[in-house]
Specification:
mainly alpha, globular, Ferritin, 77% helix, 7 helices, binds fe (ii) ion
């Protein structure tokens, strides 16, 4: 248990302090940066990507928390696969923030550990609710990314491509949680999750 805990602390420090290394190339790799993008839009897009980056930090916290107490091998391999893809999302967001001249959120450690605790609790309660929680999270993240797709200046094909790719993969994560037997969460939990997500997106847009 102590070994597992130390390894977990090491993983969290890598996610939060060092720049993590992705497994796949960026989906916008061959798309040139637009020369027509106004500075104000660059600034705004950097903020959107900061919010998305923190979303990916939360995803890592949730997945790591869920894996920490999970004992079901089928769920474990799916969670690990999704967590690897989320690391790529994290890297793509961070690189794009840097290119747009922005910064990642100072609140990331807070959201990471909060998400880790929530993910741990979900996995302790029940496997099916654990998956239900994952499915609902991915559904809400996809909807949030969709809203960004509509707000971003369409000139910025690089940012759009990253968000579109992430959205597709979040939808696949949701589908795989449902295939594994996710239970629909009670309305009250869905509402609390939406309110928490709103708090995260609003605060990290500014800080
Ligand atoms: Fe993601
Ligand atoms: Fe996801």
């Amino acid at each position: 248990m102590i070994d597992k805990l130390i390894s977990e602390i090491d993983k969290s420090l890598k996610i939060l302090s060092a720049s993590p290394v992705g497994n796949r190339a960026r989906p916008d790799l061959n798309i040139p940066d637009s020369k027509m993008l106004p500075e104000a839009d660059k600034h705004l897009h950097a903020k959107f990507m900061r919010v998305n980056h923190t979303g990916e930090v939360c995803a890592q916290g949730l997945y790591r928390g869920q894996l920490f107490f999970n004992k079901n091998p089928n769920i474990k391999s799916e969670l690990e696969k999704a967590a690897r893809e989320e690391i790529d999302h994290l890297v793509w967001c961070e690189e794009r923030i840097n290119e747009l001249g922005g910064k990642t959120s100072l609140l990331n450690p807070l959201f990471y550990f909060g998400s880790f605790v929530v993910g741990s609790m979900a996995s302790i309660v029940d496997d099916k609710y654990n998956l239900g929680f994952l499915s609902e999270t991915e559904k809400q993240v996809s909807a949030h990314l969709e809203s960004h797709l509509n707000e971003i200046n369409q000139e910025d094909k690089k940012t759009l491509t990253i968000i579109e790719t992430m959205k597709k993969e979040e939808e696949l994560h949701q589908a795989s949680a449902i295939n594994l037997g996710a239970k629909k969460l009670p309305k009250i939990i869905q509402t609390i999750m939406k309110k928490t997500a709103k708090l995260m997106t609003t605060s990290t847009f500014h800080i």
